[in-house]
Amino acid sequence: MLALLPVLLISFTSLFVKRTLKTDGMTAYFIMLTSSLNIIYFAALVDLLRPAAALIYIFLFLATIAGALSCIRNRISPFSNWKEDIFLNFNNITCVVFAIIFSVVKPGIYYWDEFNLWAPSAKVVKLFDRLYSIGINPSTNDRNYPPGNAILNYFFSFFDGQFKEYILLLVYAFLFIACFSMAASAIYKITDSLPISIGSWLIFMLSPFMAAYHTHSVRYDSLSYAYGTTLVDFNLPVVFLGAMALYFAYRDKKWYLLPMLFLLTIKKNGIFLALLGFCIISCFELFTSKENKWGFKKAIINIVLALVIPLAAYSAWFIHLDAYEMVRQEPLFDLKDRTVVTVQKEATAEKESRIENRRIKHSETSIKAIFIPSLRTERYNEILQEMKWYFINNKETIFTTDIILIGILFVLGNLAAICHEKEKRLAVFFVSTGLTAGCFVYNIVIAYQMQFYNDMMVEYPRYMVSYYFGWIYVILFLFVTAPGLKDVFKQGIMSLIIFITIFDIYKTGLDYTVFNAPENAYVWGREIKRSTEFANSVLEKGDRVYLVYKDQETLPYIRYRYNLLPAYAGFDTQNTGIDFSINFRERLDLESDRQYYLIASPEKFTDVMKHYFDYIYVIESDEEFYDSYSTLFSDGLTPGTLYTITDNDVPMQAVTK
Amino acid sequence: MKNIINKYISFCKKSRPKALMYTYVLCFCGTLLFHIISGVVNCGLSWFGVYGEKHLTVDSFETVGAEYVDSMTIINSTNDTQMIYTGNVRNLIVKCEFSRSPGEFVCFYNTRGNYSFSTHKMRYAKMYGDYYVFEFPYGTKQIRLDTGVIDSITVSFEEININSFDVWDYFACSVSELFTLLIMPGVMYFGIDTAYKLYLIINKNKS
Fold it and tell me: Residue B205: its chain A contacts at CB < 8 A?
C-alpha cells in the first residue's frame, strides 16, 4: 500500500499545479508523473538514480504543503472543482481499488521472459539503486534493454524497502490507469460529453482483456495477462495513447513529448511507436497549419521537435551504454580443453544436420534486408510467408483475424475522417491510411527480428499487440472526437465493444484473471522462494554465488538466479565472457545445442571457484558433476544447500542454520 | 414509473457528474445490501445443516479404481480413479500429497445425485497454499473427485473438508467484486444514457 503514497502525492500536487498549467487535474497529474519518470531516467543514466528520486519526492511534499497553505490563505478548497477533475478522481479511486486487490491476491510472475528479463531488471534497479547497465549486470542476458519498467517500479516503490512482484504488477496498472484516465480526460475536454468520455474510459480499462493472448488456461496454470504480466508489450501502446491524447487535446503545448520520451525507455520497439507518433503529428501539423494560430513555420518546428527530441533521448541510452560498459577481462583459467575441440565441433556439426536449426545469425544478414527484398534470407522469406497465413487465419491477437481487424480499423478511421471538422479531414484520412500501411511495415520489421529465433510464430501475437493496440487507441480517439458523428451512433458502437468484452471476461470468470486467480500459476515460483529462504538470509548484496544445476533445463536455473538476487548468482562478475551456467562438463550429446567445456580436475574447479565466487548453491547436480566434485563438499554435496568457499582441505563448507 | 424515469433523466441533464456519482453510490449500497441478505441466508442454511461443515475420510466416499490403504490413503489402481460423495456440497477443500504428479486433479459435480457426470460440470483444483479447493454452485448433491490419470500413484490425504466456511465468508465480498464495482456502475451510467438517446431518436422519428 506504500505504492499509493506517490499516487496521492502527485494528485495533491496536481490540484495545486493545474492552475499554473491552466488545465484540469488529470492532465496535471499525467504531466507530473511522466516528468518525474523522465527525470529519474535521465538521472539514472549518469548514476544519480536515488538522489533524483529523493529530490522529486521532496519537491512533491513541498509543493503539496505550499499549495495547501495557499488554499488556506485564500480560503478556497482544492476540491471545489471536483466536476472538472472527474478523471483524476477516477484515477485515484481505481488505483486504490487495484492496490487493495493486488495486496490481497498478491499475484506473482510465471512466464519465462518475466524471470529472465523484466522482473530481474526491476529487482536489480530497486535493490542496487542503479541501472543494471552500470557495472555488473545481474538481471538479464542483454544489458541493452532500456530500463523503463524498472524506473517505473523504482519510482512507485521508493518508500518500500523491498522488491515485491505484486508491486511491480501494481505499478504497471498505475501507469495504465493514468494513461487511460488522461485519454478520457482529453476526450472530455474535446467533446464536452461526459457519457462519451466515460464510455471511452471503460473501453480503455477493458482493452487489456481484448488481446486474445490474454486468454486463460482452464487449469489456472496460466492466467489472463491483462494487468497480470511484467512483459512490456502492452505498456507501449498504452503510453502511446497517453502521448497522442495529450497532443490532440493540447496542440499548442509540447506536453506530449513527456510520455513520448518515456515510451522510448520501455522497450526498443518503442522507437517504432514514437516514429508513428511523429508521422501522426506531422500529418496534423501540415494539414491544419493554415487553421492553427501558429502557422506553417511553427508547424515545421513542431514536426522537427517531435522527431529530434525523442531521437536525442533514444541516443542518450546508447551513449550511456558505451560510457558504462565494463572492461572485458581475460579469463585467468582456460576451461576449454583444446584437444577435444575438434570432436566437439564434429558432434555439433552432425547435430545441426539432424536437428532443424532454423535460426539465422546476425552476421548472415543485415538491416538493409528490411528495405531490399533481394537481400532477404530464405528464413526471412519463410517467416513472411507464414505471416501472410497468420494475417488471414490468426485469432491469437484479438477477437477476430488480423485481416478483419485491419479492415474494421481502416473503415472506422475513414469514417472518423469524413466526420471530422473540414480542416482536419485530410489529416485524419492520412493518419488512418498511414496506420494501415505502417502495419505492413511493422510486420516486415518484426519478421526481420524473428529470423534470429528458432520458434516461428510463438511470440508473433505479443509483438503485434503493441502495434494493433496503438492503432486501435488512435482510431478510437479520432472516432469519438469526430464532431460530425452523432453521439448516439458513437455510443452505440462503444456499447457493443463494452458489452462483448464484459461478456467475454465474465463468461470465463474473474478466477481466470489477475483479480481473483488462485495460486496455481505461482506454485512452482513460491516453492523456489521457500527453498531459497535460508540462503537469502545468509547472502548479502553483491555476494557471488555459483549455481549447480543440470544444464539442460534453464527455466529453473533462471528462477533460482532471480530469487537469489541481490546476490550475483551464476554471473560472470568479472566480464570474462565465461558462461557459468555450464557445469564444467563436456557433453557429446548430439541433441544438445550448447558448447561444453571439458570436465576440470577437482583442483582446477576449486581454483576457479575461489577466484570467481564466494559461495556455491546446489540446486541439483547431474551424475558427472557429483562423481567429479562431491569430495570437495563438506557433506558430500546435497541439493538445496549453500556452501561457503574456504581454504580448507575440504573447501566447500555447508552453511547451516 | 414514467415519472421516476423522467425525474432521473432531467436530473442527469442538469448534472451529469452528480448522476455518475450517485450511480456509483447506489451500486455500492446495493452490493452491500445484497451481501447482508445473502450472508443471512447462507448462515441460516448452514445453521440448519443444509450446508454444514464436515471433516471426511476416504471411508466417506465410494471409491472406483482405487486400492484402499487406510482411512486417509489410497493408491490409484487405474488411470481413472474416482472418489464419489453424495450430499449437499458447496466446497471441497483437500490437503494431500501425491507420490508423483497426477496429471490431472479435477472434481465433477451434479445436482441430482444420480451418478451422472460430464465435463460441462467439472472444476479444476484451485491451489491456495497447501490446499486444493473446489467450489460448486448451490444445489450440488453429488461430487466425483478424480485423483489423477496415472495409475500406481499414492494419494495421502491430510484433510478432506466440505462446506468449510467461516461466518465472515458468508458476508464478505471477494476482492474481485471490487473490480466489478469499479466498472459496472460506469457501464450502467453509459448504458442508460445511450438507451435514452436512442429512445429520443426513435420517438422523434415516430413523431
Answer: none
